[in-house]
Write a structure and sequence with these properties.
CATH topology: Neuraminidase
Number of helices: 4
Strand content: 35-45%
Number of domains: 1
Order of helices and strands: HEEEEEEEEEEEEEHEEEEEEEEHHEEEEE
Radius of gyration: 21 Å
Helix content: 10-25%
CATH architecture: 6 Propeller
Shape: globular
């Protein structure tokens, strides 16, 4: 019996140390997390969300609005859902045959979609789907994530990871966990120009490039870098054009989408609080491989905690809305709709949700 136990232990240790895994972890340095204090002090302001029916679908990851006040939600099944103005239920509208994430309407009324499986799509009012781009030169776009459109028609979008494509690594969530564990900074921001159908690189070396939000004046672009807990400001115009700077960093959680609001606001979701084990293993690439060989239920995963934040263009936190219970899980972002509600998106929820606009912003000039 003793020999059997020793043999089993040897096999187990051998597996944990040498079994091949898909990640090649890179050492990085994580600042101590700020925790939930100061502007991020714990509160219950998202605890009483109003839920909205999305049928049998799951994961309304992004929500957008057309000029008529209709709302659209991208869900896990590949469908784009639509809620007609004045109604309270989302219904299926178009199936992308992929995994749609970020969305934005262009000047012609086409819904531009960052589809994690297919690339950058354009959906016309008659539901015709056109593939705009799925590569940059010879480099395939493996994880189109979020999108925003400038007044000149150029389409800015993120390719979250060039190492772990969403379609071939178990879906968007599973692929994101691989990228977080590897931390090889393979994410990038691309720009598609409809005038000549070109796709070019804007930013790279990002650790899971995620949310994209355009300044209404077109002066700058905000980019969420999920695995580094920060948001970049990339200048498009002026003396700093072509340069980027950190707008806000060392956030208490993983930032996902970022959406341009009204009156100079930008809304972003924190999909999960920071995970201590991820920060503790930042400088230990070999140990992250060991963790990756463990069963999935042992490895790091998103912690359920609902959290939406509004900032201004200077990075000042305007409001932090939370629900520590995580009843509405994995909050990705928020949309200020014309009906006076703030619509909250989620990667995993079985419904959409909304709350009345926070009192801080009611009555301000728009």
């Amino acid at each position: 019996m003793k020999k059997i136990i020793i043999a089993l232990l040897a096999v187990t240790f051998g597996y944990l140390l040498f079994w091949p895994v898909s990640i090649e972890p890179v050492a990085w340095s994580a600042e101590p997390g700020p925790g939930y204090q100061g502007v991020f002090s714990v509160n219950q302001r998202l605890a009483k969300l109003e839920t909205l029916d999305i049928g049998s679908d799951v994961g309304p990851e992004d929500i957008d609005q057309d000029d008529a006040g209709n709302l659209y939600a991208s869900v896990h099944s590949g469908w784009i859902l639509r809620k007609l103005s004045g109604r309270d239920k989302f219904e299926r509208w178009v199936d992308t045959k992929g995994r749609p994430l970020g969305m934005d309407f262009d000047a012609q009324g086409n819904l531009i979609v960052a589809d994690a499986f297919r690339g950058l799509l354009s959906i016309a009012a008659d539901k015709t789907i056109t593939l705009l781009t799925n590569k940059m030169d010879a480099s395939p776009i493996l994880y189109a994530d979020d999108v925003d459109i400038a007044s000149d028609g150029k389409i800015y979008f993120s390719d979250a990871s060039t190492r772990f494509g969403a379609e071939h690594n178990g879906g968007t969530y599973a692929a994101s966990l691989l990228d977080v564990m590897e931390h090889s900074r393979s994410g990038r921001v691309l720009v598609y120009d409809p005038a000549n159908s070109s796709t070019r690189l804007l930013m790279d070396n990002l650790s899971f490039a995620n949310g994209i939000a355009m300044d209404p004046a077109g002066n700058f672009l905000l980019v969420n870098e999920t695995s580094e807990y920060r948001i970049h400001k990339y200048w498009l115009k002026g003396d700093k054009a072509g340069q980027s700077e950190l707008l806000i960093e060392n956030l208490p959680g993983f930032p996902d989408n970022i959406v341009t609001g009204k009156d100079g606001r930008f809304w972003f979701g924190l999909v999960s609080p920071r995970l201590p084990i991820v920060d503790q293993l930042a400088g230990q690439p070999w140990l992250r491989k060991v963790v990756q060989r463990m069963p999935a239920f042992v490895r790091p995963a998103a912690k359920l905690y609902s959290h939406i934040v509004a900032i201004d263009g200077s990075g000042t936190v305007l409001v932090s809305l939370q629900d520590p219970s995580g009843a509405y899980p994995v909050t990705t972002g928020a949309l200020e709709a014309d009906d006076g509600y703030l619509y909250i998106s989620s990667l995993m929820a079985e419904h959409a949700a909304r709350i009345k606009m926070p009192q801080e912003f009611i009555g301000l000039k728009r």
